[in-house]
Amino acid sequence: NFFAPVFTMGKYYTQGDKVLMPLAIQVHHAVCDGFHVGRMLNELQQYCDEWQGGA
């Protein structure tokens, strides 16, 4: 069953004043569209910005 999304996160690191972390997302095209992945990434970025005090 490959319908569940797979999230692979790398080690976070700092670059200048930013904290960066590699993130790979694998989804099956039958159950998820790129639009939905993009929407989720935008929300994740907002949460990270709020956590870092950037928003």
UniProtKB/TrEMBL annotation:
One function term, GO molecular function aspect: chloramphenicol O-acetyltransferase activity
Enzyme class, UniProt record, top EC level = transferase
Name the UniProt key words of this record, in alphabetical order.
Acyltransferase, Antibiotic resistance, Transferase
One annotated GO biological process = response to antibiotic
Q: What is its EC number?
A: 2.3.1.28
> According to its UniProt entry, what is the function of this protein?
This enzyme is an effector of chloramphenicol resistance in bacteria.
Record-stated family: Belongs to the chloramphenicol acetyltransferase family.
Instruction: Please identify the protein, giving its name as recorded.
Output: Chloramphenicol acetyltransferase
